[in-house]
């Protein structure tokens, strides 16, 4: 009898218990979806910020590398053939031609080189035999211009615009840098 009463008591307790109903489940799903939406939004924003800074760092790094290589060639040069401006209204040139000492020769010969943009990459062309000597950058250059100072021919203005090649959007702002380079070794000039 005691066992039967206990069983009946447990049965009443189980019978009176309520389970999770539809309103509680709906409320739980709604709260979970709000929480997941907030987390997804935060992850998307952080991903966009990361991509923006990654592209920006790439463009700045490439701009620095390209400018350093252009500066090295210009500072080694003994003659700058082009651009040689005859008046103040002369526009900038997208190519510069220089003479640099030939390190492979024991005598003081010089090689004629050209720096230009081919297929969006900075290339060095050997003008004496017309061959491409080396590629100096990745294909990321939108524009590169050289401009000589009218009063002091050693001063060269270099304007560079770089764009990350993986960027698909046409609206993005390109990385632009301008630099004044003093070609200290330049002593003589050739009209080009």
Classification by helices and strands: alpha+beta
In helices, the fraction of residues equals 25-40%
Largest sheet: 6 strands, mixed
Strand order of the largest sheet: 5-4-3-2-1-9
Q: Care to count the β-strands? A: 9
> What is the C-alpha radius of gyration, as a whole number of Å?
35 Å
Number of H- or I-type helical stretches: 2
Which stretches are poorly predicted, pLDDT < 50 over at least 5 residues?
Answer: 188-192
Overall shape: rod-shaped
Report the portion of residues in β strands. Answer: 25-35%
Strand and helix order: HHEEEEEEEEE
N-to-C span: 119 Å
Please, could you describe this protein's structure?
The chain is about 35% helix and about 30% strand. The chain has two helices and nine strands, in the order H-H-E-E-E-E-E-E-E-E-E. The strands form two sheets. It has a six-stranded mixed β-sheet with strand order 5-4-3-2-1-9, covered by helices on one side. The longest helix is centred in the N-terminal third of the chain and has 55 residues, at about 20-75. The chain is rod-shaped and about 120 Å long. The protein starts with a helix and ends with a strand.
Gist of the model:
The protein has 192 residues and is an alpha+beta fold.
């Amino acid at each position: 009898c005691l066992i039967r009463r206990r069983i009946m008591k447990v049965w009443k307790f189980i019978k009176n218990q309520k389970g999770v109903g539809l309103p509680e489940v709906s409320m739980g799903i709604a709260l979970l979806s709000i929480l997941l939406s907030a987390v997804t939004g935060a992850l998307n924003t952080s991903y966009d910020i990361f991509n923006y800074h990654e592209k920006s760092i790439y463009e700045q790094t490439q701009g620095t590398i390209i400018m350093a290589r252009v500066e090295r060639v210009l500072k080694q040069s003994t003659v700058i053939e082009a651009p040689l401006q005859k008046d103040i209204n002369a526009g900038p040139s997208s190519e510069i031609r220089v003479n640099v000492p030939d390190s492979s020769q024991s005598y003081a010969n010089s090689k004629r080189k050209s720096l230009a943009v081919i297929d969006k990459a900075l290339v060095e062309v050997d003008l004496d035999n017309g061959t491409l000597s080396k590629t100096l950058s990745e294909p990321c250059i939108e524009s590169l211009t050289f401009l000589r100072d009218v009063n002091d021919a050693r001063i060269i203005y270099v304007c560079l615009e770089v764009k990350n090649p993986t960027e698909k959007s046409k609206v993005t702002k390109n990385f632009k840098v301008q630099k004044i380079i003093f070609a200290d070794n330049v002593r003589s000039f050739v009209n080009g």
